[in-house]
Amino acid sequence: MECYITYCIKGFFAFNGNNELIAEKLFPQNEIIERLVQIDNKEIVKEELEIIEEVSKDYDELIIESNKRLSDYENEKIRIQTPNQAGDFLRSNYDEFDLNNDEITEVYRNLAIYKIKKESASQDKHLIQAVNSIEEIDETISKLIERIREWYALYFPEMDIIKNNETYIKLISQNKTKEEIIKAKPDAFPQSIIDLEDDIGSEDLEIMNNYANSIYELQKSRKNIEEYIDHKMNSIAPNLRLLVGPTLGAKLISHAGGIKRLAMYPSSTVQIMGAEKALFRHLKSGDRPPKYGLIYQHPQVRGAKWWNRGKIARMLAGKISLAVRRDVFTKTIDENVAEEFKEKVEEIEKNNPFPTKTTKKRNEEKSKLKNKTRKRKKKNRRR
Predict the structure, then answer these.
(1) Residues with Cβ within 8 Å of residue 112, at least 6 apart in sequence
(2) Nearest CA among 107, 117, 87, 114 for reference residue 4
(3) Based on the structure, what is the number of domains in the chain?
(4) pLDDT at 197
(5) Model confidence over 60-86: pLDDT tens digits?
(6) I need a surface site. Which of 10, 264, 319, 370 has the fewest CB within 10 A?
(7) Which domain does 283 fall in, by range?
């Protein structure tokens, strides 16, 4: 005889072939959300085990509506069918089991809220927000410094000698006048500075100092966020941090949408993460495919000879995949991961001191590519 098992927000129900209820195991009222989360995570809950044990005594085959695999169950009588006739019958007759649409909607709304809160509490989500904040702060600081340099040059044009932006802002924010700035850094300025009487009002100077101080505070906030990212990376992805550094590692996690998603990516995807536009351009127009994306920011890739960058990027992507999977699944730390990578880079550079293709061949390929591009543009114009 066949028995059909299904579940809803109330618990697990078992029906015979005639859709007659033969057993039920209800969830505790205060643990409904917890049970539904366990089921979504493909776990076998206590009530499911209890109803299987109860009905397996009288029935030869148990047909279960489940999101799990058959190998997850130890009972040989079980067969998975989703949906099965018991599930269809239950969903069509909620009123008979003291269920109404408002109650079901409320439970699933609470379940959605629970999942959102749990997801937002994960450590890598905070890391992603921190990395995005760094990028936005950098963009803001760049624009603000451009403005303060142009503005402050009206009062003290000799300050353009200071090329380092952090030093420039620090000098203005901590010193009220040009005389104080020259005393703070006398070696940076020439001996004779043209000074005009009444060249600026005190109100103008005050507002510029306050403006510079705001930028200085932003720069300090950026440093604090950088330290926070380093601390977070050390706790959730120590192997990735050792291999590529905290900033680049955090950018990779942010681009993937989480450390677990990054761990599931193949190394070929990791290699071109951040170069999606170039990849789509290659697929659409036949341009050269990208050899690297975000990982180009790694000094070993960026500083390599151009004919070795692709090889090093490919090898680094493989190392990143292994490091992230070690961080997520095994929780072990390989202290030598960075040293091993550097040794491999040195070996690649040693074995490939010269490009494999001559400059002439590369120029020929470039000219062919340009001709293709021109022809394609002409066709598009005709259309």
Answers:
(1) none
(2) 87
(3) 3
(4) 47
(5) 899 999 888 888 888 888 999 988 999
(6) 370
(7) 242-352
